[in-house]
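We store chain and fold; thus.
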Amino acid sequence: MTEKELIFLVVLDDSKEIFNALRYAARRTARTNGRVALLYTFETLEFSHWKAVEDIAEIELREEAESKIKEYENYVLTFSNKKPKKFIMKGDRLECIIKFLDANKFISNFVLASSLNKSGGGPLINAFTMKHNDKIKVPITIIPPLLTEEEIDNLS
């Protein structure tokens, strides 16, 4: 019987903590023969009267997303020999994540990195450990903000 490939999802953003989540996921997949999945979301722009402007803006946002994903993909590849799966979605970030996890049952783990933010670990951690915790059916791994790279490596 072949073993199921473990897929660790990391939702990309511009925070410095994202690299903790990426490092953990990449190191973990290298040890489990798994793979990282990268999800980049961007908001829908509404220019109601100017559909052509909206279309151009969306193309630019998608190109920016592809560029960012490439940067994060290269970081993952420094720890793992498997290229990550890459996904881009347009819309509200929380709704995109919920829809993505619901539609992609192959995700084994959702990796988030906590921030030092006084109002909690960050918007995604707050959302998925409280208000929306009943909307996902996959384990969440939260990487604490004060772990060193060595500590992250040891945990993964």
Q: What stands out?
A: The first strand starts at residue 7 and ends at 11. The chain has five helices and five strands. Helices lie at 18-32, 51-77, 93-103, 123-131, 149-155. The domain at 7-155 is CATH 3.40.50.620 (Rossmann fold).
